[in-house]
Structures are given as structure tokens and as C-alpha cells.
Amino acid sequence: EEDLLSDVCREVVQKWSESQTVDAREEKEDELQAIASMMEKQARIVVKPKEISQEEKQRKAALLAQYANVTDEEEYPFPVPRETRCFGGHTLSALNSLPALFRNTNVEDVLNARKLEREQLRDEFQKKKEQDKLQREKDKLAKQERKEKEKKRTQKGERKR
């Protein structure tokens, strides 16, 4: 019976391992089939390039050329009627005559801020330097006074002897 039992166990293990390999093959085949179907779907999707007419291309080129020629010193490129009123009773033509409204001043502002900061640091350093000098002089005078007091005390002590 023991021989039969070991044979049956071997047979069960063999059948189980065969079923596992069959399941693994089926899963791999399913995965491959899914990947193939996804690739087919992607191949069917075709992106049509947008057709741009020659007129639209020319308009776009003209706009780009217009904005490429604008500099900071020129007036704002939109045409404005001369006597158009805006808020506050000012005319837009007066606003357009001010080129500083459309000039980028960020770099100048940063440089001026750095310059002010350097000047403040320089002034603070100068004040600290003067204070240190005064403190050294005070310390020197105090040291001299202590020496003189010590000298007088020693002279007094010698006289008493």
C-alpha cells in the first residue's frame, strides 16, 4: 500500500504541475492577444494634420512680423483714435505719447535696489568702523587709568613702610 500511496502522490503532483503550466501558457496567450489588439487599435487611429490655407499662413506671418518690429521706445502698436477719452478725463493719445508706460524697467529697478543696498552696507560699515575706533580709544584710556591707580596704590604702600 505504501508503494501505491507514493505512486498516487507522484501522479497528483505531476497532474497539478501540468495544469499549472497550461494555465501559465493560457495567461501568456491572453496577454499577447490583449497587447496585439491594443496595437491594432492604435494603428487604426490616424491623426489628420490640420489644413491651413495660404491666406491664414500669410496673416500669421504678417502678425509675427508686426510684433517682431515693435521695440520698447515705439508707441503701442494698436491704432488708437487721437481724441478718445478714457477714465480720469485723460486722452489715450496723451497716454500713448509716454513710451515709459510700455518699457520694461525690471532690470533698472533691481540694479538701483542693489546699488542702494551697497550704499547702506557701506555706510553701516563706516559707522561700525568709527564706533570700534572710539571703543578702542576708551579701552586704552581706561587701561591707562587703571595703571595710574595701581601705580599710586603701590607708591602709597611703599611710603607706609
Q: What structural class do helix, strand and pairing data support?
A: mainly alpha
Give the overall shape, derived from the CA principal axes: flat
Quickly count the helices: 4
Number of strands: 0
Largest sheet, strands/sense/barrel: none
Q: Strand share of the residues? A: under 5%
Helix content: over 70%
Give average pLDDT, whole number: 79
Order of helices and strands: HHHH
- What would you report as the Rg, rounded to the nearest angstrom? 47 Å
The parts where pLDDT drops under 50 for at least 5 residues are 92-96
Report how far apart the termini are. Answer: 128 Å
Would you write up a description of this structure?
The protein has 161 residues and is mainly α. It has a domain at 107-160. Helix content is 73%, strand content 0%. Mean pLDDT is 79; it is low at 92-96. Residues 149-161 have a biased composition (Basic residues). This is CCD43 protein.
Summarize the helices and strands and which ones pair or pack.
Blueprint: H1 2-44, H2 54-68, H3 92-96, H4 106-160
Could you provide a short overview of the structure?
The protein is mainly α.
Q: What distinguishing features does this structure have?
A:
161 residues, mainly alpha, 4 helices, 73% helix, flat, CCD43 protein, CCDC43
